[in-house]
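Example record

The entry below shows one chain as it appears in the dataset: sequence first, then C-alpha cells.
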Amino acid sequence: MSTDTKYSSIHYNSYLQVDRITSAQSLRSDEVGAHAHDEMLFIITHQVYELWFKQINFELRSIINDFSKRQVNEKNVGIAVSRLDRIIEIMKLLVQQIGVMETMTPLDFLDFRNYLFPASGFQSFQFREMEVMLGLKQERRTTYNDKPYHCVFADTKKETLEGLEKGNSLLDLIEDWLERTPFLEFGEFKFVEEYQKAVVKMLDLEKEAIMKSDILSEESKQMRLTMLGDTNTYFSNIMNEERHIQLVKEGKLQLSYKATLAALFINLYRDEPILHVPFLLISKLVEIDDHLTTWRYRHAQMVMRMLGKKVGTGGSSGHEYLATTAAKHHIFADFHNVSTLLIPRSALPELPDNFRKNLGFYFSAMKE
C-alpha cells in the first residue's frame, strides 16, 4: 500500500457505510400492504442489539486469546479488566434498550407480529456465540422445545457453535488461571488451615457476644445463633475437597476446588496491591453475570407485557421460557458463592512477612 493510499481522505458516510445500514430496514407489513408504524422501531432495536453483540464478542475473543496462553502477562490481566468493563457498559445499554422497545404498546406489536413467523430472537447466532464463549454449556441450558439450542441454525453456524463448545470458554480459562496461583501454600503458611482457624475464632467470639448480651431474650439469642451458623456453614463444601469434587460431578458447582480456593484468597486479601487487579477481574465477571441476568429478566417481563401467555413467534413458550433462562443461566455463579465464605478484615489471618516479600502474582505454568 502506498503512502498516498494509506493516508487518503475518507468521507464519514463511506467509512461507516451509512447508506448500507440505513437501507437495511425492510418492513414486512409494507410488503403485504398493511403498514405498521412501530415495525421500524422493532427492526432497528434488534439490529442495534446485533451490532452490540458483535462488539461484545470481539472483546471476548481478545480476552480468550490472551488467557489461552500458558503464561498470562500481568499487563494483559489489566487489559482484560478494561475490556470486561466495556462489555458491562454495553450490557447496561442492552437493558436500557428494552425501555425504548416498551414505548411500543401490545396493540402496536400485534399490528405486525403475525408477519414475523417463524423468526425469533432465539435465532440470534451472535447471542449464542456470546453465551458459549462466556461459558454457558449445553448441559446447563434450558432446552428449546426439548431440542438443542443450536437446532435453529444452518449447518455451518451449528458447527461453529459446536466448535466453540469443544474449545475453552472464558470460564474454563479463568479457572485454569486461578488453579495456577502460587500462594495457597508458601513455606509454613498454609492458607486453608489458617482460614479454618480464623473462622472458628470469629464464630466463637460472635457466639460469646450473643450469649453475654443482657438485652436479648433467650429466644432471640437462639435465633441469632441459628442465623450465625457454624463451621459446617463454611466448611461443608469449600473446605472438603472430596465433597466439592462430588458437587462438581453433580453439576451443582463448576469451578474446581483449587480454583475456588484461589478465588476466595483473592477476595479476602483484595487490599494487597498485587491482588487488586485479579480481584477486579473476578468482580467484573460477576457483574457481567448480573447484567446478563437482568437483561434476561427484563426481556421476559417485556414479553409478558406484550404477549401475555401467547406462544413466541419461534414456537417457544414465550415468557415462561425466558423467565426460566433468567433463573437458571448463571455462568459465573461460583464466584457469587465465594461471598458466603468471606470473613471480616479484622478476622483475616496475618500473612507472614516472608510471604508478603516473596508474593509474586504470576499465573504461569511451573517450569518442567
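Notes for this example: Residues 361-368 have pLDDT under 50 and may be disordered. The radius of gyration is 25 Å.
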